[in-house]
């Protein structure tokens, strides 16, 4: 697994903001642009030829919404079929996803991303068809382009706005473990999750 941690966005945390930490996973077939989307969001970069993810990559990014700071723990999963059996390990405990089948928790925030919007001549799905599918399945939908940065920040901000943010969390605390990135099956002491309902 690669660990590509991110820097705080220019709209970084403000003093006194509630801090909430959420696990977000990106799932989808190989070469749909999952890694490019995350790289654009976290580092503001785009690479024309992105190496395939092996297993999963972990990145973090922080965004601010009014009085709340949302820290995303982002798991970018491999799309190759040989890694499909690992996917449940990565999306277990996630509160949000981009391109995830709606067969998970009913409380999960799911965003459908029509990525590579800059390649209009190679469009595989009509915008209205994708929007109708998203509407029928209560999904957040945006067309995105990691290459041009179209709607990249916007899709993550829209996810951040939909996540529950009820209880404050102290900055720097190692909380949210029950909602965060605990990929082991061993029992661990329960910690109060951030912003639980």
Outline the structure in words:
With 197 residues, the chain is an alpha/beta fold. The chain has a single domain, classed as Rossmann fold. The protein is 18% helix and 22% strand. It has a seven-stranded mixed β-sheet, sandwiched between helices. β6, α3 (127-136) and β7 (140-143) form a beta-alpha-beta unit. The model is unreliable at 1-10 and 169-193 (pLDDT under 50). Residues 167-177 have a biased composition (Polar residues). Belongs to the small GTPase superfamily. Rab family. Pfam families: Ras.
Summarize the structure.
The chain has 197 residues and is of the alpha/beta class. The protein has helices at 34-43, 87-91, 127-136, 152-162, and strands at residues 2-3, 18-26, 56-65, 68-77, 96-98, 109-114, 140-143.
Strand residue percentage: 15-25%
The end-to-end span amounts to 32 Å
Gross CATH architecture: 3-Layer(aba) Sandwich
SSE ordering: EEHEEHEEHEH
Classified by CATH, the class is: Alpha Beta
Helix tally?
A: 4
Biased composition (Polar residues): 167-177
Region (Disordered): 167-197
Keywords: GTP-binding, Nucleotide-binding
Family: Belongs to the small GTPase superfamily. Rab family.
Task: Write a concise keyword list for the protein shown above.
single chain, 197 residues, alpha/beta, Rossmann fold, seven-stranded mixed beta sheet, 4 helices, 18% helix, 22% strand, globular, nucleotide-binding
